[in-house]
């Protein structure tokens, strides 16, 4: 059985380590963990696996932890994603002058081609020499195997040229 755990709260030293320890104490296993500092908040999510009784024990422990530690915890039981066709794993890395609408344009381009976005990581940085804000995004994708990759790459490069963004579309190196 699997459980997703999402947390948000004021930044606390060792919060993620404490959550991982609680998972281990419940005889469960952390399969995935993503955590970030966002301003003065800690935010993240985990995929946890265990037997049904271990997951139930963990859920009870986490419900008790939430009010005493001033964090919000959301729990949801889940299953592995089953795709109805085969997909090829790809990534996109984007670097562009920061402006409104980049993420919307990029996700619409992918959605129009039925490409599944499996992970998004974004940030904004100030380019040191240029004193300009730079938008950076890394997308993990599942591209349907029947999509012609060369044609997709050409369409994507045209999209990038028109949107004034620098990007790379490449297969995941396994």
Can you characterise this structure?
It is a single chain. The protein is an alpha+beta fold. It has two domains: 77 residues, ACT domain (Alpha-Beta Plaits, 2-Layer Sandwich); 85 residues, ACT domain (Alpha-Beta Plaits, 2-Layer Sandwich). 31% of the residues lie in helices and 45% in strands. It has a four-stranded antiparallel β-sheet with strand order 2-3-1-4, covered by helices on one side. Strand 2 and strand 3 form a beta hairpin.
Radius of gyration: 20 Å
Distance between the termini: 27 Å
Low-confidence stretches: none
How do the SSEs run, as a string of H and E?
EHEEHEEHEEHE
CATH topology of the largest domain: Alpha-Beta Plaits
Number of helices: 4
Fraction in helix: 25-40%
Mean pLDDT: 90
Strand arrangement in the largest pleated sheet: 2-3-1-4
Q: Tell me the number of structural domains.
A: 2
Indicate the structural class: alpha+beta
Assembly type: single chain
Q: Could you tell me the number of beta strands?
A: 8
Beta-strand residue percentage:
35-45%
Major sheet summary line: 4 strands, antiparallel
Write the CATH architecture name of the largest domain.
Answer: 2-Layer Sandwich
Report the top-level CATH class of the largest domain. Alpha Beta
Identify the overall geometry: flat
> CATH homologous superfamily name of the largest domain?
ACT domain
């Amino acid at each position: 059985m699997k459980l997703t755990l999402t947390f948000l709260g004021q930044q606390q030293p060792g919060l993620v380590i404490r959550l991982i320890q609680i998972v281990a104490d419940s005889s469960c296993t952390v399969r995935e963990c993503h955590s970030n500092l966002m301003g003065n908040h800690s935010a993240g999510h985990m995929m946890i696996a265990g037997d049904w009784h271990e997951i139930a024990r963990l859920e009870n422990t986490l419900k008790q932890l939430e009010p005493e530690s001033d964090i919000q915890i959301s729990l949801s039981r889940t299953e592995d994603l089953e795709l109805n066709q085969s997909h090829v794993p790809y990534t996109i890395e984007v670097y562009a002058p920061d402006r409104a609408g980049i993420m919307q344009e990029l996700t619409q381009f992918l959605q129009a081609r039925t490409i599944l976005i499996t992970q998004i990581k974004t940030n904004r940085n100030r380019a040191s020499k240029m004193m300009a804000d730079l938008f950076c995004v890394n997308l993990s994708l599942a591209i349907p195997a029947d999509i012609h990759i060369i044609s997709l790459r050409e369409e994507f490069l045209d999209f990038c040229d028109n949107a004034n963004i620098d990007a790379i579309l490449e297969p995941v190196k396994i």
